[in-house]
Design a protein that fits this description.
By secondary structure, the protein is α+β, with helices and mostly antiparallel strands. The protein is built from two helices and 20 strands. It has helices spanning about 15-20, 290-340; strands spanning about 35-40, 45, 50-55, 60-70, 75-85, 90-95, 110, 115, 120-130, 135-140, 140-150, 155-170, 175-185, 195-205, 210-220, 225-230, 235, 240-250, 255-270, 280-290.
Length: about 350
């Protein structure tokens, strides 16, 4: 392999982490390899979707994962553990293999490799050692089995893993902060219909346990309040995690200043070590909803009136010119008759 190398890590989507799932990369022998990784006990898969562990500071425990090779030939998998996080789409993933863990992933001990025969499963022990100084709260991590497919210049890592919800017992803190980052108004191009107010916000988990953030937004206008609407499904936030989302409020007339209000409510995950969720974050920002469509319609009407008036004036002037010409021609004809000689008839 030359100096040019790259590691591409497959996303550990929630569905992949939660149940048996396979991928089909190319192995060194150019044969398709598919495998799955699931929570297990010492005898094999135990039906869990994720590994949930609650330990005291300084406490140790042993968990297991089952690596199943669905391929037609034996495969040697690399086994790794690392810190977990949520992607922008909200799916769970692990830090890249080349990034050293600094939190929960550093507390997991796994063997470096596991060789699994064709159509067989191997149970891999996972030793968990929580430091004495560990902060109470959630420390997400993950365990993955991976293979490398070697090319002429690129090594591609493909991995499938299991999510580990590692919680340190103690006085954890649930906290959420939110900020309105922008408010925009999207008018309807139908001048006789209201538009939409779009409230963009950022939510940050400032506590030590996972929470889910759900938001509602409304608007206050000179015509009264517009009812609050929801901003979609709750979004999970791990400690230190942040998310940017938006809420669309329909039925807002563009009549100048609009008070955009936002409520971001934290919801504790089921089984959380914190019993009381923090209060919702309430925010208000004044924005402007300009009647662009109505102004455009007014300009079109004014232009139409001006054009019609100009046309009418031209027609009136033309008519007056024709009448004046007709009167002048009539007068000239009358004067011509008056100058004709008069002869006696015998």
């Amino acid at each position: 392999m030359t100096g040019l190398s790259r590691t591409v890590t497959a996303t550990l989507a929630a569905a992949v982490l939660a149940a048996a799932a396979g991928v089909s990369p190319a192995s060194a022998a150019d044969a398709p390899v598919t495998w799955s990784v699931t929570p297990a006990d010492e005898y094999g898969p135990d039906g869990r979707r994720v590994i949930d562990v609650v330990l005291e500071p300084g406490e140790r425990a042993v968990e297991h994962v089952a690596v199943t090779n669905h391929s037609a030939a034996p495969v040697t998998f690399s086994i790794t553990a690392n810190d977990g996080y949520l992607t922008e789409r909200g799916s769970f993933d692990m830090l890249p293999s080349g990034t050293p863990p600094t939190d929960g992933g550093a507390w997991l001990g796994v063997p470096e490799q596991a060789t699994v025969g064709a159509g067989e499963s191997v149970v891999v022990p996972v030793e968990i050692a929580v430091p004495e100084t560990a902060e109470p709260g959630d420390h997400p991590a993950g365990i993955a089995a991976s293979i490398l497919s070697a090319g002429s210049e690129v090594a591609v890592e493909s991995r499938v893993g299991v999510r580990v919800n590692l919680t340190v017992a103690g006085e954890a803190v649930a906290a959420l902060d939110a900020t309105i980052t922008d408010v925009s108004y999207e008018p309807s191009w139908n001048p006789f219909a209201p538009g939409d107010l779009v409230v963009h916000y950022e939510a940050v988990n400032t506590g030590t346990v996972a929470v889910s953030a759900t938001a509602t937004a409304g608007a206050g206008t000179v015509l009264g309040d517009v009812d609050d609407v929801g901003g979609g499904e709750p979004r999970e936030l791990l400690p230190g995690g942040r998310v940017e989302r938006s809420v669309r409020v329909s039925g807002v007339w563009p009549l100048g200043p609009v008070d955009a209000r936002l409520a971001v409510e934290p919801v504790l995950d089921e089984g959380s070590t914190v019993s009381v969720a923090p209060a919702a974050v309430l925010l208000t920002v004044t924005a402007w909803a300009l009647p662009l469509a109505q102004i455009l319609l007014l300009l079109v009407l004014v232009l139409f009136v001006l054009v019609v008036r100009r046309v009418l004036r031209r027609r009136r002037a033309r008519l007056e010119e024709l009448l004046a010409r007709a009167r002048a021609d009539g007068a000239a004809e009358a004067r011509s008759r008056d100058r004709l000689p008069v002869t006696d008839a015998h």
